[in-house]
Amino acid sequence: MNSIKKKLFLQIGSLIVLLIGLLILANTFLLKPFYIQKQKKQLLKHYDVINAIDADGYSASYDVLGDIENKSHVNIIIKDNTGVLYSTKFNFLDDTLIEPKLTPPPPKPYVIVQEKPINQQINWVWSEDERKTRFLQIVGTLDNSNRIKISMPLMAINHSIDLANQFTLIIGILLFVIGMFIAYVLSQHFTKPILDMNRTTTALKHLHFGTACQVRSKDELGQLAQSINDMSIELRDTIHSLNHSNNELQKEVKKRIKIDEKRKQLLSNVSHELKTPIALLQGYAEGLKLNVAKNHNRTDFYCDVIVDEANKMNQLVQTLLSVNQIEFGDIKIHETDFDIVDLVHYIVDKYHQHFEDHHLHVSFLPLNQPIGVHTDRLKVEQVLTNYINNAIQYVDDQKMIKIRMVDREHHVRIEVYNSCTSIPEEELDKLWDSFYKLDKARTRALGGHGLGLSIVKAIQEALGNGYGVELNPNGICFWFEVAKCTEDL
């Protein structure tokens, strides 16, 4: 039996049955002594009333005595030495002490069962006739020396007890039915908030926080329901906070894993990039040591190669340090307001001679009016320079380069296009990785170390601006954005 409703219902029913049983037992064993005790008190009260009547006033007090007999169902006999002064009209007891003035019915013999003194004048007497009918009597003398006997039949008490038990049983069954109905209603009403709280806590166990207890009262159950609702809110907020922290931790773990992978890749790439210049340095240095160069011009060539490779290695290390500083926020950003159109004009003009030397077909589409931007001028120049160098380095035989500026609502977009052979779309995201080259053999024919676009990525993410690459039918277009000023220059 797991239902609190059933337990409460049966407990209330058991309590009703127990109370009815106790009431019947009380009637059976306690009602008779209680009844006799009450009758004793009543008889003593009648004795006191009769004792207060004057000896010559019995005939005058006939109504008083008759009223006592009628109300209490007692028989009264009062005698003196001459005979009976007063007697109940219907005397059912034989009295051997006196002769009644009226002719009594035939005497009925009785037996004294018990006698117990009350005081010096009167005694309690329990007697029994031939039909086993018991009587309770006060027998003795009055203050005026007259003798008195007050008798009360006890034959009705046992019958009354049987009737009381029968009535109690009938009423008890009726009360049991009514009580069980009330118990059912009360158990429904009492257990409804408990069942509601049980459903809510079950939902909480499965981390469903959409359900809440209905607070129907301000008693202990209402306070418990409110506490469960408060606990649900606290658990929801705590779990939400834990989930958020867990997501942040997972992101951090992924970030750390990615950093470790980048470090491993960086180590592999750096070792690969440094392997060639170190081998050249070692070979030419050993040649000088062994005096392989027989003349002065050859010696100068060996030294020039060593210096050139050392410079390349130094440039590579400086570039790596720059990328590392930008990615990890170790470099300061100096944001100022300036005209982006003027800056792009300056950078394109700076490359004019370089374009002519390489016989490149360059088209530049600037904006027609000055536009103020708010960012780091040197970083923007570095990004655009890397894009232009990258375009010059990888332009194909068409030698087509296009530089365009596009005015957007909140920023200016700068695009650098160069004609080139087709590039697989799945390779685009890898272009921003350090040391990544489309040349899988990683030869030195095209120059560079594959760090230019990774520098662009680091700078734009540090500045909070967009960047990207798009494939065109005959080439590729790299773009980046610069945030506009909130006010005009």
Automatic annotation (TrEMBL):
Membrane-crossing residue ranges in chain numbering: 12-31, 167-186
Pfam hit, one: HATPase_c
Keyword terms: Kinase, Membrane, Phosphoprotein, Transferase, Transmembrane, Transmembrane helix, Two-component regulatory system
GO biological process annotation, one example: cellular response to phosphate starvation
GO cellular component: plasma membrane
Chain ranges of the HAMP domain: 188-240
Keyword flag Kinase: yes
Name listed for the protein in its UniProt record: histidine kinase
Native organism: Vallitalea pronyensis
